[in-house]
Amino acid sequence: MRFGRVLLAVLGTLFVAQGALQFFQPELLTNLIGVRAQSITGRIELQVIYGGLHIALGSVCLWGAANDGNTRAALTMMFFVAVGVAVPRVGLGFYYQDFSGYSLLAMGMEVALLAVILVLLKKYRQKNEHIA
Q1: What is the pLDDT of residues 25-59, one digit of tens each?
Q2: Neighbours of 120 (CB within 10 A)
Q3: pTM, whole model, 2 decimals?
Q4: Which of 42, 92, 96, 124 has the smallest set of CB atoms within 10 Å of its CB?
Q5: What is the count of structural domains for the chain?
Q6: Residue 98's domain spans which residues?
Q7: H, E, C per residue of the chain
Q8: CB atoms within 10 A of CB 85
């Protein structure tokens, strides 16, 4: 399952890099998507969610990429993350009629990632059924 490890390595690198950037410069979200902290508590929240949480997600992806024995577990975790992001993004996009360029790009990427992870997990399942 080389592709699964490559996907996790790419995701891990992107999540860690983006998370580190957002942790140290949360105001970048203002320019990118219009998210603005109006208090120190809000700034901390942006740093925690867009910084710390994304670094943690990236670390799990890199852990899964580093060892084939960890790949399925990391893909399973990322499946739940992808569902938790893609379903509300698409649903709320339609609910609020938000079809901005950013929202459409995010919807497409998140749904595509979910589909790719599902295919990879199915292949892992078939591989394990064949061995058993």
Answers
A1: 998 888 888 888 999 999 999 999 999 999 999 99
A2: 22
A3: 0.88
A4: 96
A5: 1
A6: 2-131
A7: CHHHHHHHHHHHHHHHHHHHHHHHCCCHHHHHHCCCCCCHHHHHHHHHHHHHHHHHHHHHHHHHHHCHHHHHHHHHHHHHHHHHHHHHHHHHHHHHCCCCHHHHHHHHHHHHHHHHHHHHHHHHHHHHHHHC
A8: 17
